[in-house]
Here is the input.
Amino acid sequence: PRGHSLPHSWRQPHAPLSFFTPTMAIQTLTSEAADYIAASIPDVGTVLPPKSAAGGSGWASTAVIPTTSGRSFFVKTAARPAAAMFTAEAAGLAALSAAATAGGADVVVPTAYTARDGADGGSFLVMDAVPLGGRVDMRRLGDAVGAIHAAPLPAGVAGKGFGFGVGVGTIGGSVQRNAWADDWVTFWVERRLRPQLAATRDAALIREGGKLCEGVAALFADEPAPAPVCWHGDLWSGNYGATPEGVPVMMTRMRLSSSCSALYCCVLWFLILWPSSRNMRSQLRGSRPAARL
Here is the structure.
């Protein structure tokens, strides 16, 4: 592959997955990601040995792969098949980046290049590694978020209602369905509340939660129809940062959904299409105890 020279000491040869330890599988996937970078991304020069990276989770590992061009790439790997999860994550990054561009937001969003299964099992995701180290100016970050909220929806999304083009996403290992719905209440109830209730397998909670679901529409009966906007719904400190020059960065672990329940509970995470009505949000805050279901 073009410009590709990898020290044998860190490359993991292919072997039947049944003989792999999790560490061996991750090494192999990282090697495959390096092969992809060298073969498919132009002008990277020589791919260098990977470096450990902060982040990851119980099911995913992370690394940074530098190159002699000065560019580096952030690689997320999973020893289990996770291409669908990584594909949704890449799509979320692309949507957030597009909204940032359309809204003129002063923010960096990493570009994702591929999400795929490994040859011997597992999956990997490759994106740009954004240098971090600057102090986060929260006002500047807030301005960027506001610009993303105000950005016009792309032509392929406008008019579809609430949801996302990747019909099935995930929260960790849990399925999150994002099929389009004409109105926000329907999406919130049918794609978020009812599935979360069903996942508890708690008959009493499902019964009482079902009563809440049946009454949600009445909460919004007198509200104007909200307009969907692109929104990053999980901006905890692990998902934002700043470049050494101080430019805000919005990072990975994003997905798409559509509701404003992240205001008061953890039912919804990540990139969402959020109703912009202030009165609606105030009313939701007023119904906080019930919403904890």
